[in-house]
Amino acid sequence: MTEAPVLLVTGGSRGIGAAVSLLAASQGWRVAVNYTSNRQAAEEVVNAIETAGGEAFAIKADVGNAAEIVAMFEAVDRHFGRLDGLVNNAGVVDQPQRVDEMNADRLDRMMRINVTGAILAAGEAVRRMSTKHGGRGGTIVNISSMAAKLGSPSQYVDYAASKAAIDTLTIGLAREVAAEGVRVNAIRPGVIDTELHASGGLPDRARDMAPSVPMQRPGRADEVADAVLYLLSPAASYITGAILDVSGGR
What we know:
Helix content is about 45%, strand content about 15%. By secondary structure, it is an alpha/beta fold. The chain has one domain (about 5-190, about 220-245): Rossmann fold, CATH 3.40.50. α1 (about 15-25) packs parallel to α2 (about 40-50) and α1 packs across α9.
């Protein structure tokens, strides 16, 4: 059996997740590409990895569903027999609203996917990677957002709050498992040109917000992926509990 490390990327079929999956494979990781509904997109990522000589497979799972999270990790166990890294990337936004316009259903969906799902996935990863549980160690990179610092007023305050929870998860979990061979860090992307904005009803948001970015342009998914792969790599061996802004200075 190959000893190449195994990475699970939640939300790996599009945007930042797809860029991370492709870059990780090019750097020697075997990749489990998670998707929620768009199997074709996930298979395209897998096919691109395999065409380049890498190894990958697609896993359907909704990270807003606790049972499906468990099943996803069990599928990785069966397919690869090990886990060395998790990129907690899956997340959602919603239509722009003020807080006084939001309802409980919206908030429940936001927190269930962006927060509860990320914490449960991190727990499953720790149970496999921590030396306390007989693992070999590993790395977790959580995808937060600059919204956690900026608040996203009149747009996505609930999304911003969910990403602030990811920052806290990163710091707390990093300290919790630091002596168990598991490093936990996060990336805060800024305005990145991906389809996530369209899913929130603002397809031109990246372009429209470019003037507010000190570098005067939105970021690209591959630029975020570069930072993720750095934190996953041995080059970051003494880094844990860190949150890296990838935001063009915003």
